[in-house]
Write a structure and sequence with these properties.
Elements: H1 4-10, H2 12-23, E1 30-34, H3 41-53, H4 67-74, E2 80-83, H5 92-103, E3 112-116, H6 124-134, E4 141-147, H7 155-158, E5 162-165, H8 171-180, H9 185-194, H10 198-205, H11 208-226, H12 231-242, H13 246-267, H14 280-289, H15 292-310, H16 315-327
Parallel strand pairs: 1-4, 1-5, 2-3, 3-4
Helix pairs in contact: 1-2, 2-3, 3-4, 5-6, 8-9, 9-10, 11-12, 12-16, 13-14, 13-15, 15-16
GO biological process, one term: DNA-templated DNA replication
GO molecular function: 3'-5' exonuclease activity; DNA-directed DNA polymerase activity
InterPro entries: DNA_pol_HolB (IPR004622), DNA_Rep/Repair_Clamp_Loader (IPR050238), P-loop_NTPase (IPR027417)
């Protein structure tokens, strides 16, 4: 269950500003939450709605147990409205329906909350209708607009909102957040090294394709160390069959890069930084095969391979060349 105490560790500036507004009873009528996907914008919005409507709040923390908190958590509160894109956009009719809902007296109280997710996807007509809505604020109404690209919204909408910037989660905060989502320490370490997007990390951790990708990276390392003459055969027969497109191959290279970083960390005895911690014995064996300088060179080769993929060099040629470079 998300609380302000937890959110304060993930988004300290945003959390402080919002909790201060609750404590001082200075809640703005409209907020614009802007930041990349997975930074907690929707979680903060729902937590703020709970604090706004909770009947048994403890300071700024909602009780999480009253009828209002439970219904907000389940998405069934009659006075909390979540607007999301229908297809590729948020349409004028959705905003008109929202306005109509707000002409009625609140079912539980006069307090109402509406959250517009992916606000940058509003059509021009929808944005203009929302602007008229924002121009007539009610003290009992709180609007939260969520966006990955605040600059794409009308300046007139932005000027009527208190703008809060959500920062990308740093790896340590990300790891802790994933553990709170019941992810194992080992998996959380890897996911936080790959992405600062919470949703993407959770999806990856449950993806069978990704689990097989991790196994293939370890298999490639084993082949490079023990059967180098079969490395190119492995690349063509197994590696490329799994990493079939450029995005998939980029992910494979990301995993390979983490492995070679771990080799460097093992050389300098920085165990706390090792990501593949459950493969410690294999990493130690890798240090016998690649010196610190060789592992560092391998990282340079992998970065160059990633750049070549972006430049549309044939993926198989990129991997074959990378394999030969790492073998030197």
């Amino acid at each position: 269950m998300i609380t302000w105490a937890k959110m304060g560790r993930l988004q300290p500036k945003v959390s402080k500003m919002l909790t201060n507004s609750i404590q001082k009873d200075r809640v703005a009528h409209a907020y614009l939450f802007q930041g990349s996907k997975g930074t907690g914008k929707l979680s903060v919005s729902l937590l703020f709605a709970k604090s706004f409507l909770c009947t048994n709040r403890n300071g700024v923390e909602p009780c999480q147990e009253c009828k209002n908190c439970i219904r907000i958590e389940s998405g069934n509160h009659p006075d909390v409205h979540l607007i999301q894109p229908e297809g590729q956009s948020i349409k004028k009719e959705q905003i008109l329906h929202l306005q109509k809902e707000f002409t009625y007296t609140g079912l539980e109280s006069n307090q109402k909350v509406y959250i517009i997710e992916n606000a940058e996807k509003m059509t021009t007509n929808a944005a203009n209708r929302l602007l008229k809505f924002l121009e007539e604020p009610s003290k009992e109404t709180v609007a939260m607009l969520l966006t990955e690209n605040g600059q794409s919204l009308l300046d007139t909408i932005r000027s009527r909102c208190q703008i809060l910037a959500f920062q990308p989660l740093n790896p340590e905060n990300m790891r802790q957040r994933l553990i709170e989502e019941n992810m194992t320490e080992t998996t959380a370490r890897l996911m936080s090294a790959l992405t600062n997007n919470l949703e993407e990390a959770i999806t990856l951790s449950q993806d069978e394709w990704f689990a097989n990708a991790r196994k293939l990276v370890i298999q490639l390392i084993e082949v490079l160390q023990n059967k180098p003459s079969e490395a190119l055969l492995f690349i063509n027969n197994q590696w490329m069959d799994h990493f079939k497109d450029r995005d998939a191959l980029q992910q494979g290279l990301n995993l390979l890069m983490i492995w070679f970083k771990d080799i460097v960390y093992e050389h300098v005895e920085n165990d706390a930084a090792i990501v593949f911690i459950n493969e410690k014995e294999r990493i130690q064996k890798s240090t016998y095969h690649w010196s610190k300088q060789q592992a560092t060179s391998a990282l340079t080769y992998i970065l160059e391979a990633k750049r070549k993929l972006v430049a549309n060099v044939h993926p198989t040629l990129v991997m074959e060349q990378l394999t030969l470079q790492i073998q030197r």
